Amino acid sequence: MFSKFYRNLFFDPDKEVDIVPPSLDKGEPSITHQEVQDAISRLRWQRAPGWDGINGAMVKAGGNVMANFLTLFLNKCIRDGVFPDDFRLGIMIPSLKPNKPPGTPSSFRTITLLSTVRNVLTSIWAKRACKMTTSIVRSSQCGFRPGVSTADAVFVMRCVAERSKLGDWKAYASMLDMSRAFDSVDRAKLIQRVHDTGLPVVGLASLLSSTKIRIMVNSFIGPEWMVNVGTVQGDSWSPVGFNIYAEGSLRKFDLVIQERKQVMDKSKTSKVPFSSLQYADDTALLHSNKEELKIMEEVLASVLKEDGLMLNESKTERAVFEKNNDDWKSMKYLGSRIDSVCDINARIHLANVSFASIKWTKHRLDIRLILFKTIVLAVLLYNSALWTLTAKMEKILDVWQRKKLRFIFRIFYPARITNKELLKRAKCKNLSTICRKKRLQWLGHVIRLGEGAIANQALMFARNIGDITKPRGRPPTRWVNVIDKDLCMVDMTFAQAMSAAQDRQKWKSVINKLDRCS
């Protein structure tokens, strides 16, 4: 059943099995010994091997001898344009999606186990491609690019949402998701788009030609079958390749929208300076006019369909950001709730679940503290640099932390300990102080990204509120207000921070001042 389902999904009889690279392609340059060593160092020790049975630990154990051999071997493969059959054979393993019924194959997502030596080669190509495509892939793409992450996209969305609290300003957002995006990529179009960026594609076209898959379910391995659709999930190069492929689709989308703007009523021009956000196959569209946003959705769906990508309407969420509407607050975007208070409450719940899953009495005190800091706090503080913390929320976090530490130290009534002594024993700071330091670290990161980065643009957009008619009464607290208070604690203005953040060491010393202020 699984083999038949995935064979229909990954094999299109109307498409060629072998991919012919563009005739003017310059070919893949040789790889260096240092590049191979760096790629081997990035391998995971316990990564599952491909069909050849060679895992990361075996390659790492070879040391410099293995690096020398792989440099010669891979360069010969590149020169001859011939790769071992094991490079093109993958073992596909289905994994059940959360909250899905196990009876149907569509409830599973797949990961493909590939040759470790192939992953060494594609890891080198991926690193080269990242450097060359920095100026090609748009700044709003926050996935699989150095220096950006989900935090950038969440920060932009939260800045837009918080601005709507101020007065008569309104915005609309559509958070879209593609169905099996990586598995639907047209390989011939992918090779052409990679070639158009100036990257060599001869070696890549060879690796993507005549690829075969064997599916493994409960240790049973099925027969081989050909694959000619989609990027190989499990390949180091796939995320970079998907970004290039998606960029081609989004550029066509931009052209259609630009043509529409020329004939559109000026009153419908968006007041939101960024029209879209991307994280790999997740796309969010933003506009201040509901009708125009709907048209943007239709255009995007049409453009993506031309390239074999489909939007999943069942996963689409739409938000209206306005002063008297709270429906958007509990919406989840890239793992975080859009509203800070809702996100903090959700994170506390997840941290409580994580805390309860650990058998604390089986470990020594020092191990218990390590588990608390590395597992429980890691769950709690995900994207905490983006939280708009009020004094009330800071108190909730600090009380939660002290309650958990008292449990770890086994201090129960009538035994007593001061909060200061408790934190001293645990060798940690209040969560409110940790969040404050994380906010300043994030501010420095955003400033250093420069004006071209979408997170930097969102920061300036959040600070510039001159076009908003403010209502009577105290304005709501926003992230930019909280960061101004943080800067006051270290005797610094925002203008001074813009300059100081450019020097990492100087900015670290500024952040460390918070320890003396707390």
Task: Please tell me about this protein's structure.
The chain has 518 residues and is of the alpha+beta class. It has 19 helices and 12 strands. The longest helix is centred in the middle third of the chain and has 26 residues, at 238-263. 36% of the residues are buried.
Specify the number of helices. 19
The portion of residues assigned to helices is 40-55%
Give the averaged pLDDT, no decimals: 89
Low-pLDDT stretches are none
Q: What percent strand?
A: 5-15%
Please describe the biggest sheet, giving its number of strands, its sense, and whether it closes into a barrel.
5 strands, mixed
How many strands? 12
Structural class: alpha+beta
Could you tell me the radius of gyration in angstroms? 26 Å
In one word, what is the shape?
A: globular
Distance between the termini: 61 Å
Question: Notable features of this structure?
Answer:
49% helix, alpha+beta, single chain, five-stranded mixed β-sheet, 19 helices
Set out the fold topology:
Elements: H1 2-10, H2 33-41, H3 56-61, H4 63-80, E1 89-96, E2 108-113, H5 116-132, H6 150-163, E3 171-179, H7 187-196, H8 202-208, E4 211-217, E5 220-221, E6 225-227, H9 238-263, E7 276-279, E8 282-287, H10 290-306, E9 310-311, E10 317-321, E11 332-333, E12 336-337, H11 340-356, H12 365-380, H13 391-408, H14 419-426, H15 431-449, H16 454-463, H17 479-489, H18 494-500, H19 504-517
Helix pairs in contact: 2-4, 2-5, 6-16, 7-9, 9-10, 11-12, 11-13, 15-19
